[in-house]
Amino acid sequence: MVGRDSLQPDLFGLPDNPDGGTPERFQPLAERMRPRNLDDLCGQEHLAGKEGPLRGFLGGERLPSMIFWGPPGSGKTTLAEICARALHYRFEQLSAIDAGVKEVRKALDGARQSARSGLRTILFIDEIHRFNKAQQDTLLHAIEQGLIILVGATTENPSFEINAALLSRMQVYVLKQLSGSDIEAVIRRALECDTLLKERHVVIEDLPFLLQFAGGDARKALNALEAAVALADPGSRAVSVTRAMLERALQHKAPIYDKGGEAHYDTISAFIKSMRGSDPDAALFWLARMIEGGEDPLFIARRMVIFASEDIGNADPFALSLAVSVFQAVQMIGLPEARINLAHGVTYLAASPKSNASYEGINEAMRAAGSFQDAAVPLHLCNASTSLMKTMGYGEGYRYPHHYPGHFVEQHYFPEGMQPHSFYRPSDEGREKTLGERLRRLWTERYRS
């Protein structure tokens, strides 16, 4: 990375200074240090390195519409700007947070005007996952016509948030969280190249603390450095950024949890896997992380209801009742007290015996149902609702189990032409062991050990 060395506006819509005239010293450090080409970029070697697709696109002077999916501060906006500069394309930027259909159409009108003069447009939409379906649909025709090259940036999994029609027209490239060495390179380059930092002779005394705080976010690291330097005595000839200065400037590290972002999916996954692994302590930790991060408690409770049937099932049939009760309690109580209800349910579910036999059974049955979807229901299992249906044999031959010893009689319950199959295979865990023993007694051929 290097500092920007010109105060002239960029011809392609990328001014070196906001509004083409704001002095460089008024720009945030992260903006002053934004890379201008792929060689200046730290990290993302898989995309921007010698064999990376972006370098190939720029070398061939052709660029597809793309979505950059990655964590904050990983370089999504920077890559879009680099592509525009390298190809001499006009660059139009929108934020899905405050832009709507009107703003998108205005941007497309600007692209048409530029196209008439032979200038192509990259339309960059930050936080593109925040666009609703109607807003996303306004972009489809423009992409198909080649009016724009759309580059979207998102911190969320595109397959969850971008509609299929738009996603099919774009390439998805995953940006990785920057490593500690990447962030260190960003910081050292800032110290060496930024005019304002060099004027103050800035030295960082506790680099590991700054790297830990940044958590792979280059923008966060540079903003933190700038905030700490701002606290230094303006009259000092040299600024030594100590841990005390960083702690004073930053106060504390907020939890890295975006309830609408990738952390949302990763954390709920860790939460479910901890309960599945019968580790109530780890499950409580992830529960606390979600609560602290502002996760919707009803979302957590819903996942617990699913878990009770998917991972415990008949090993403890009460687990589902408890999970439903927790959900209802969370609805009635709300946070912060509802955390107690959630913890009650989580510890029970995590400590319960486990069986996914019901879950595996329905999945296997669904596959079989697809293969035998045209198989007829045997007449003896049909209801004879009318006299005509009775004369046609509906219900004939059905044996009512309650009329037999043990309330059971062996008969064929599967479709015509389909052999009986044991989709449900009870485990030997908890209450399910008793169910398995009974089924093996009743259906000896199907449930032979």
Second CATH tier, the architecture of the domain at 44-174: 3-Layer(aba) Sandwich
Mean pLDDT: 86
Widest sheet: strand ordering = 2-3-4-1-5
CATH class of the domain at 44-174: Alpha Beta
* Overall body shape: elongated
Major beta-sheet overview: 5 strands, parallel
How much of the sequence lies in strands comes to 5-15%
Task: Determine the N-to-C terminus distance.
Answer: 66 Å
What helical percentage do the residues reach?
40-55%
Q: Which oligomeric form is depicted?
A: single chain
Return the structural class.
alpha/beta
Verbal overview:
The protein has 449 residues and is α/β, with parallel strands linked by helices. Among the domains are: 44-174, 3-Layer(aba) Sandwich (Rossmann fold); 262-351, Up-down Bundle (Zinc Finger, Delta Prime, domain 3); 376-442, post-AAA+ oligomerization domain-like (Orthogonal Bundle), CATH 1.10.3710. The chain has 22 helices and 7 strands. Strands 2-3-4-1-5 form a 5-stranded parallel sheet, with helices on both faces. Helix 17 (297-312) packs antiparallel against helix 18 (318-333). It starts with 28 loop residues before the first helix and ends in a 7-residue tail after the last helix. Mean pLDDT is 86; it is low at 1-13 and 15-19.
Main features:
disordered N terminus; alpha/beta; Rossmann fold; 7 strands; 5-stranded parallel β-sheet; 48% helix; two-stranded parallel sheet; Zinc Finger, Delta Prime, domain 3
Topology:
Blueprint: H1 29-32, H2 45-48, H3 53-59, E1 66-69, H4 76-87, E2 90-95, H5 101-116, E3 121-126, H6 133-137, H7 140-145, E4 148-154, H8 158-161, H9 164-167, E5 171-174, H10 180-193, H11 195-199, E6 202-204, H12 207-214, H13 218-230, E7 239-241, H14 243-250, H15 262-276, H16 280-292, H17 297-312, H18 318-333, H19 338-351, H20 357-371, H21 387-391, H22 432-442
Parallel strand pairs: 1-4, 1-5, 2-3, 3-4, 6-7
Helix pairs in contact: 10-13, 12-13, 13-14, 15-16, 16-19, 17-18, 17-19, 18-19
